[in-house]
Amino acid sequence: MAKPAWLRKRISIDNINAIKVEHILKDGLLHTVCESALCPNISECFNQGTATFLILGDICTRNCRFCAIKKGKPNPVDSEEPKKVAKAVELLGLKYVVITSVTRDDLPRGGADEFKNTILEIRRVSDSIKIEVLIPDFKGDKDALKEVLLASPDVLNHNVETVPSLYSTVRPMADFERSLNILYWTKEYNSSIITKSGIMVGLGETEKELYNTFKMLIDVGCDIITIGQYLQPTKEHLPVKEYISPERFKEIEELAYQAGFRYVVSGPFVRSSYFAHKGYEKILEVKSK
Questions:
Q1: Alpha-carbon gap, residue 66 to 200, rounded angstroms
Q2: What is the DSSP letter of 94?
Q3: Which of 62, 56, 197, 36 is nearest to 113 (CA)?
Q4: Is 260 left (phi over 0), alpha (psi -120 to 50) or beta?
């Protein structure tokens, strides 16, 4: 299936900010989800001098059929990685930071300690830096989640990725209810933490399924939803069932607002961490009214 005109995007990492980002990442031996997941927005983010940090290596223990990140046996965790990330944040002068990871089912508590340590190291750089973490499900380990929450991230993001009926095909090692619990437990632990999730469209979901998924996320207190087009990374990954038009994305955005979300970002190139600071600022604005 050929990509429509609205999904053609030139990737060009060529300005001084992008070069600086690449050098800092290379010097710190750091990974980004921008590169590992073949994000179509990489040039925009790098050219603006920012990136989404990918901790715990760049090899995932899960076999999700939509994701471009490498799968297999991961390397040992770099105990200095939290400090390296914090140093990169300082050098880049970031005011809002997004930290995500591969899924590490091989580690105790799924690598939750590394999330906590990374947050704490960034806090040492500056208390004013806002931190969003995009976490895996930690196999439903509530204590692992609590370890992350003890470090007080400003935003806790966990993507459900798709509607429940497609989990066995799209995310065979994940569980929809388990993902909902991550968001529910976060609000249960600290209701002031902003929670966020993301979903892909174009995998064969129906409008009714989307709306029901939105309502289930609202029921567990989710504040923000990001909605983007699924793009097939390679021929070995799931095929795209449908390319959603920009006009249809606006309709899906309205559907999400009708379900009760406080902030929705919906569009062909939308990804979880794309201009993530705007969602945080919008929720603060809503809360202040």
A1: 10
A2: -
A3: 56
A4: left
pLDDT tens string 147-190: 999 999 999 999 999 999 999 999 999 999 999 999 999 999 99
Q: Is residue 1 part of a domain?
A: no
Q: 2 in a domain, yes or no?
A: no
CA 68, distance to chain mean position in Å, is 14
Q: Out of 71-75, 146-150, 160-164, 241-245, pick the least confident.
A: 71-75
Backbone angles phi, psi at 161, to 5 degrees: 75, -40
Task: Report the number of distinct structural domains present in the chain.
Answer: 1
CATH number at residue 201: 3.20.20.70
Cβ atoms 131, 100 nearer than 8 A: no
Q: In what order do the strands lie in the sheet with 194-201?
A: 31-32, 53-55, 96-101, 130-134, 155-157, 194-201, 224-229, 263-266
Q: 131: closest CA among 198, 194, 49?
A: 194
Question: Model's pTM, two decimal places?
Answer: 0.91
Q: Is residue 6 part of a domain?
A: no
Parent domain of 93? 11-288
In a domain, 58, yes or no: yes
